[in-house]
Amino acid sequence: MANKRQMTFEANENVLCFHGPLLYEAKILKTDWRVLDPPHGDEGPAYLVHYRGWKQTWDEWVPESRALKMNEANLAKQASLKESYPGKKKAVPKTSGTTESSDRGKKRAKDTSVDKEEEFTKRPEIKVPIPDSLKAQLVDDWENITKHQQLVPLPRTPNVVQILDMYRDSKKDKKGKSDEIFQEVLSGIKTYFDKCLGNLLLYRFERQQYVDIRKRNTGKEDSEIYGGEHLLRLFVQFPMLIAHTQMDQDSINALRENLVDVLKWMQKNHKELLLSEYENASPAYQSIVKS
Hints:
It comes from Linnemannia gamsii. Pfam families: MRG (PF05712), MSL3_chromo-like (PF22732). This is Chromatin modification-related protein EAF3. Residues 23-83 form the Chromo domain. This protein is of the alpha+beta class. The chain is 50% helix and 14% strand. The protein has 10 helices and 7 strands. The two termini are 17 Å apart.
């Protein structure tokens, strides 16, 4: 039993923790062995974390898969993820100068970072309501995978790219939509999906499947392999993802309106877009996952 409940991290330890597609500095407040509620994961090691500079209302229990040791390699990974994050501005090239000017630059950068953290904590929470029938789908999805050890058959048809194309086609004759904003939103959904799937949208039991399917589809993006089940999981995360952007309120409102419309369309067409049955994982697959 002691081995089964061995914890990788300890209380009061500083770690890096995934929140969305990015890594943030966090402190572990408590440790436990528990079943985390959907959509977080399975029974296992869990940690109550506080993100540095964030309100306490953002404190949350996370599975071990979302936490990383605070070391040079993982700090480099944090920087790499931040650099590739959608909409991130390019860094200003470094210039030569005195040590004094360099120190002033570091202080300004630190002050700017603190200001951004304070700005984030003051921002109101953004809500993207999920229709009840799609919430039920999310719960069924979680139970099928984490409890019954079933899998979404891949590649999916329709995949995320095809779903977004179907939605786009359904709106061709609709008036009053800004085509530029409309196209940008759909492109943004696809971009977020491709960047978030591997780090944010998969349950532990699906990770081996992800490794296998990527090996067999090296020339394709995740949005060309996965479908509506995983796309729904992205919509659950959108409020947090939007909160980390620098969009103004008008842009946020326009984005939210479009996301809500996509969800309503998915609800209306759920029989065509979402699975009613999952496939049983083979004994060989289960042995690999449990090893």
